[in-house]
Each structure stands twice: as structure tokens, then as C-alpha cells.
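Lecture 7 notes: from sequence to structure.

We start with a single chain of 63 residues. Read the sequence below before looking at the structure.
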Amino acid sequence: MSSTEKGYINENNQKNIGKTDKKGTGNFQWFYDMECFNCGNKYYANGCGIWLRKCPNCQGGKP
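Now the structure, written as C-alpha cells:
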């Protein structure tokens, strides 16, 4: 499964909930809704960073 596919869970226990209609911060990037299974926090991530993303609430990831 690709990290940009809805339902992907990375090694930090972060789930890709799906692509948004918001442009990301990198070239040709889109923001994806993410959810942390450790604390329940929901946040955005660029598509290119989903695979390594850490929760900004409980893992010290970027907001």
C-alpha cells in the first residue's frame, strides 16, 4: 500500500484518513488528513511526508 492511499498506517502509528482539497507546502504536494492512534489527535501532513510523520501532539512532530 502506498503511503498516500487512504487507510495507510505508518510505523509511528499515524493513519492517513484521506487527501484534502488543500494544496500542501511543497511543490505539487497536497495535504492529507492524519490521525494519531496513540492520542487521537487529527492534523494535516504533506503527501511526501506521510510515511515518516510523527504526531505533533504526543510524538514531537512538526505542527
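The two ends are 25 Å apart (CA to CA). Keep this in mind for problem set 3.
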